[in-house]
């Protein structure tokens, strides 16, 4: 009822209040108690993952990762060592939660005797793992990255996520360059422009539609859509690196 009312208000004054208390923000629900505990050093994360957990419980079609018809692996990182941990037989729900546990934002997940977090901080990408495992052909569906932002992020959380995304893009680009000669690699170009930050989900439906059009264009012509996408790793991007004088 409150969500319906907030969505129908012209300037959404109630929406802001509900979002502040985590009643509308499903992905990063701001809970005052959790935030206070984090500021006091009693939590190492800012947001609970309970909403994400409930969502995954509804949509995950498997209970364990090894129940899929096509072998599935999930990349995480060991909190204590920083080393990559690839999950392929563990329960699906905690594995996915661990792979989305962005440091300091979401709680870590304990599986067995290991404390795990988002695999994006490890020194191995999913592409590296696939090629090392013997894949002779790989399709890389790159995650979305903010592109051509109209302004710099205005909040600490938005800036942190933006920086994390930029670092992830650089790591994936480096992995593409490293593995191009090791396998037949197909990289689907990400959307651009993407003038929203990772914390803003208001344009999700529009981005899905644009991504569908962009991917169809790429599958037909094997080139980025001129108005919707960009190459993730340009073939001559190394030419733009700073060079030492002389």
TrEMBL record:
<dbReference type="Pfam" id="PF01734">
    <property type="entry name" value="Patatin"/>
</dbReference>
<keyword id="KW-0443">Lipid metabolism</keyword>
<protein>
    <submittedName>
        <fullName>NTE family protein</fullName>
    </submittedName>
</protein>
<dbReference type="InterPro" id="IPR016035">
    <property type="entry name" value="Acyl_Trfase/lysoPLipase"/>
</dbReference>
<dbReference type="InterPro" id="IPR002641">
    <property type="entry name" value="PNPLA_dom"/>
</dbReference>
<feature type="domain" description="PNPLA">
    <location>
        <begin position="39"/>
        <end position="130"/>
    </location>
</feature>
<dbReference type="GO" id="GO:0006629">
    <property type="term" value="P:lipid metabolic process"/>
</dbReference>
<feature type="compositionally biased region" description="Basic and acidic residues">
    <location>
        <begin position="235"/>
        <end position="246"/>
    </location>
</feature>
<feature type="region of interest" description="Disordered">
    <location>
        <begin position="227"/>
        <end position="246"/>
    </location>
</feature>
């Amino acid at each position: 009822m409150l969500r319906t009312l907030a969505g129908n208000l012209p300037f959404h004054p109630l929406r802001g209040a509900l979002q502040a208390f985590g009643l509308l923000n499903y992905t990063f629900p701001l809970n005052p108690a959790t935030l206070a505990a984090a500021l006091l050093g009693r939590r190492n994360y800012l947001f609970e993952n309970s909403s994400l957990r409930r969502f995954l419980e509804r949509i995950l079609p498997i209970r364990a990762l090894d129940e899929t018809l096509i072998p599935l692996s999930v990349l995480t990182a060991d909190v204590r060592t920083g080393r990559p941990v690839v999950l392929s037989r563990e329960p699906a729900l905690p594995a996915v939660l661990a792979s989305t546990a962005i440091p300091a934002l979401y709680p870590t997940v304990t599986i067995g005797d290991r404390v795990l977090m988002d695999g994006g901080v490890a020194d191995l990408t999913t592409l590296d793992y696939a090629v090392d495992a013997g894949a002779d052909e790989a399709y890389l569906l790159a995650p979305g990255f903010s592109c051509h932002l109209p302004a710099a992020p205005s909040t600490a959380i938005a800036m942190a996520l933006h920086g994390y995304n930029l670092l992830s893009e650089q790591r994936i680009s480096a992995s593409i360059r490293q593995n191009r000669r090791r396998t037949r690699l197909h990289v689907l170009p990400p959307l651009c422009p993407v003038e929203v930050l990772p914390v803003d989900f208001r344009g999700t439906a529009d981005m899905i539609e644009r991504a569908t059009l962009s991917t169809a264009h790429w599958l037909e012509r094997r080139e980025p859509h001129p108005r919707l996408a960009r190459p993730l790793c340009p073939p001559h991007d190394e030419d733009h690196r700073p060079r030492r004088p002389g």
